[in-house]
Each structure stands twice: as structure tokens, then as C-alpha cells.
Amino acid sequence: MSTYVVGDLQGCYKPLKKLLKKVKFSETTDKLWCVGDLVNRGPDSLDTLHFLSDMEDSLELVLGNHDLHYIAIHEDCAPARSKDTLDNLLNAKDSQELSDWLRKQPLAHHESLDTKSGVENFLMVHAGVAPHWTLQKTLNLAAEVQFALQDIDYKAFLHHMYGNTPTRWHDQLEGLDRLRVITNYLTRIRFCDEIGTLQLTAKEGLSSAPQGFKPWFEFETLTPETTILFGHWAALEGYTGKKHVHALDTGYAWGRELTLMRLEDKQLYSISS
After folding, report:
1. All domains of the chain, ordered by start, with CATH?
2. Is the separation of the CB atoms in 210 and 193 below 8 Å?
3. Residues 213-262: tens digit of each pLDDT
4. Beta strands in the chain (DSSP E)
5. Has residue 56 got a pLDDT over 90?
6. How many CA atoms lie within 13 A of 95 on its CB side?
7. What is the Cα–Cα distance from 83 to 71, expressed in whole angstroms?
8. pTM for the predicted model, two decimal places
């Protein structure tokens, strides 16, 4: 049995199938983890969700910003954008079922696995975590958003999900502001400062950090006790410089590669677009 984690799929179903075939993935014995952004930008968001939703117990995933965006559009809580490639998914007969399935998914996944170096704790999120969040706090806050997505009034959250404020975490935050900033850390963060102030407009690589800001993983306090797996930041091209922080989004949707990591030994597999 092996556990594989794959970078942002973004509706690239056929490359995913090729990559799983390359590693001889078995749904009966292996597990696949997805770091989020399952849909949008690529051509086959519908097929991607059909495939993943059928995997049942052999799949673990976390939601990314594009997944949340699809849910919001589907529920008439946000307009589509010109670069979206979601029409086939939005117009599908089972679009409601798929949206409901996504709404049940978490924003963080934690699991301990037997690896070549011993038992290792893994945390999977789409984008990152705030400075000084403990593992338990990260999981608790992610659960708050997951609960909001399943609440009877979930559309209120979706309507107010977008935005760059508050700019940093405070324990005293309440209501929709609290949910929005948690969501921004877990699904949108790239750069922040040492107290967690978010800089959400810079999207290039490490050298593009605005003055006073650094990549979020320069400030996280979870490693080395916990290994962090994330996607979202294709411009990193898989590089963080941190032994226990792994960037899985290598930009297949942007003409580069789709990457899969076997967690037991950190072996990387990829295919080019």
C-alpha cells in the first residue's frame, strides 16, 4: 500500500489518469491525496470530479480557492469570471450533487503514516497556515469553515467569502470576518509577515516577495514535528527550501508539470503538459 499526494489538478483529468497509471495506482490498496483546486482553468473539471467522487475510501482531499469559487457560482453567490473554464461542470445534470459533495470536504487533513524514516505526521492544506497556529488550532479553524459550508445558512458564507480583509488573524474575530480570514490563510496565502499580515496580490516566486513580507512557510511553527503538504503556488515550481514543507503545484495548467509524491519515501513522479 502506498499513499500519493498530487498537486493542483484544475480540471486536468487525462493527465491525472496518466500519472496514476505511471505509478500503477490501485484503488483497492493505495490512497490518493489531493491538495485542492480540483477544478477550473483546465478542460475537464466535470470528469475530474466524477472520477474523484467515485474513489470513496481511497481518496483524501482538501478544498482550494477554485473549488470554493465553483461552489459559490453554482449556488448563485458569485459571478463567473472570464478565465473560468467551468461551463461543462455548471451545466452538468449532476452539478448540484457534485457541488454538495464538495461542500462536505475539509480545508485541512491530518494523518500519521508509516514512512521510511518512521511514523510521520502530515498536514495537507491548499495554500498554507498562519504564523503561530498550532496543528490543533489549524484543524479546529478549518473545521469552522467546513461547518459553515454545511450549515443551513451556508449561502451567507459564500456571499461574503471573497475579499482581502481582515488582513490578519485575531482570536477575537467573529462571524463572517473570522470565516473569511481563515479561508484566506488556508486557500489563498502566499506571502505574509511575522505576525501573519496577509499580502494577497503578489503571486510570483520567492524573489517577488513585497518589502516586509516573506513566504508563509518562513514563519510557520508546525515543522519538523509535522510535515506540511500544499499546492496553490505554481510559481514555486515545487521548491520551498524547507525539508518538511512540500509544494506540490508545479503548474500543469500553465504548461509545466503535474506532480505526484509518494509519501512513504518522498519519491516524486511527474508528467509534462
Report:
1. 3-272 (3.60.21.10)
2. no
3. 999 999 999 999 999 999 999 999 999 999 999 999 999 999 999 999 99
4. 3-6, 31-34, 59-61, 108-115, 118-125, 191-192, 198-199, 214-215, 226-230, 245-247, 257-262, 267-272
5. no
6. 18
7. 16
8. 0.98
